[in-house]
Each structure stands twice: as structure tokens, then as C-alpha cells.
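Need residues for this backbone.
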């Protein structure tokens, strides 16, 4: 059903909030968990867009329960919106071919649902955040799972913490393919290593699919890692929020 709401996705390190008016995402932004005042401000900013709509609500997806509870408390105290939770009150409308005991993050399923809703064909969904996930959705819209690896920041942090002499390095695109100093060599390893991993997995998924799937990237590091990369067909910053719209639209009216 088309509705007006705050769509709230709480990931491992940041919270993304979108304002949805009559089923359309009109505004979105993100803040880090440790800056909860910024999250509160985003909630208030988003509420501005829906405050005069009929029966507005908040729809919440979370990978971090402690932050989710703080967000729910903030909504109760300041905005007075009813809160629905993904998979509890609002199921994610995507088929799944997984091991029986598998527990998959809501963000991965929401990304997959949004990607297939737009593309209507086999696709690979890359979410480049704290972790990087590379997931496969077949041509019938079934989520098969995929691969999970450390994201760029975790890789950089592991090198600095786990070695005796490698420095802390800020994530950035390398200036050249070959790093001519330690900092650039680290950036080359992380940047091209992640790109290479995504290419390798995509090619393996293509063998399963029987054709080359569309590749969609999202997440906080997606633009830095994949902008201009010929493998990636589209970068969508707020894919998980769009997945929440797909889920909400599948809820029967009444």
C-alpha cells in the first residue's frame, strides 16, 4: 500500500533515514551511530515531510538492536509515530533459496528485493559498507545468498592493528595502479582487491545463472570503490530504503 512514513535502516555503523510521501522516497540521509544527536536531527527533518500526511508511520529495519531501541524511544518521545518492524510486521517480499537454518541480514534481503523490483532480471547486489556483501538474485527473483567479506575500513584497520609497522591509512582511491610508497600500496591493495573480489564473484555467479547478471552497488563506500568501474551497471545510495518501500507496497490494504 502507498503510505507516508519514515524509512529507517540501522546498519552496523550508521543509520540511514528516508522520508517517504505517498510511496515515493523524497529525501534521505545518514549519520554514524556514535553521533546520536545527528540521528535525532535526521528523524526530525524527515518528519517535516510527512507531518501533514494521513496516518504517517515509521518503518524500521535494524542490524544493531541497541541503536534500534534508542531510535524507537526517540520516535515515541518526539514524533509520536507508530513503529513497524521489517520481517516482524512487514515481511520482505523476495523468494529465498538458502540453508534451512540460515539467518540473513534484513539489509541484504531488502537490497535484493529493491534491485529485482527495478531490474526484473538476474542481478548481483554489492553492498560496500562496514562489511562488503556480494549477493545473487536469479531471474525469477529468488535470493540465493552470496559472499561476505571485510569492508575497506576494516581491511585498513586490520593492517594497521595487526602489523608492527604499517601505518593507519585513510580510505581513498589510489593515484596509480602500482603503489610507489607504503600508503599508496595499501590503498592499491584494498581498492583493487575489493574490485577484483567483486569481479571474480560476479563471474562465478554468471556461470550459475547462465548469463551475465546486472550489477548494482550500494553502501557508504560504493561510490568511492565503484564509480566509473565498467563492471558495475548502477550505484544506488539508498537501495535498502527502496527495498523497504517495496516491502511496504506488498502489505495488503486494510
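Answer:
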Amino acid at each position: 500500500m502507498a503510505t507516508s512514513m519514515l524509512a529507517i535502516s540501522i546498519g552496523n555503523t550508521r543509520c540511514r533515514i528516508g522520508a517517504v510521501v505517498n510511496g515515493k522516497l523524497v529525501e534521505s540521509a545518514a549519520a554514524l551511530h556514535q553521533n546520536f544527536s545527528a540521528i535525532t536531527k535526521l528523524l526530525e527533518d524527515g518528519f517535516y515531510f510527512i507531518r501533514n500526511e494521513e496516518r504517517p508511520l515509521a518503518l524500521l529495519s535494524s542490524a544493531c538492536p541497541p541503536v534500534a531501541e534508542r531510535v524507537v524511544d526517540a520516535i515515541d518521545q518526539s514524533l509520536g509515530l507508530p513503529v513497524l518492524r521489517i520481517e516482524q510486521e512487514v515481511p520482505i517480499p523476495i523468494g529465498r533459496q538458502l540453508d534451512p537454518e540460515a539467518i540473513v541480514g534484513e539489509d541484504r534481503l531488502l537490497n535484493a528485493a529493491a534491485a529485482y523490483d527495478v531490474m526484473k532480471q538476474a542481478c548481483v547486489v554489492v553492498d560496500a559498507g562496514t562489511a562488503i556483501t556480494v549477493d545473487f538474485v536469479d531471474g525469477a527473483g529468488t535470493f540465493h545468498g552470496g559472499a561476505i567479506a571485510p569492508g575497506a575500513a576494516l581491511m585498513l584497520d586490520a593492517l594497521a592493528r595487526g602489523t608492527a609497522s604499517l601505518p593507519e591509512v585513510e580510505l581513498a582511491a589510489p593515484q596509480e595502479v602500482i603503489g610507489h610508497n607504503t600508503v599508496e600500496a595499501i590503498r592499491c591493495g584494498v581498492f583493487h582487491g575489493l574490485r577484483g573480489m567483486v569481479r571474480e564473484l560476479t563471474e562465478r555467479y554468471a556461470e550459475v545463472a547462465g548469463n551475465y547478471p546486472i550489477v548494482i552497488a550500494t553502501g557508504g563506500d560504493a561510490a568511492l570503490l565503484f564509480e566509473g568501474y565498467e563492471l558495475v551497471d548502477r550505484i544506488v545510495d539508498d537501495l535498502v530504503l527502496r527495498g523497504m518501500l517495496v516491502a511496504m507496497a506488498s502489505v495488503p490494504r486494510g
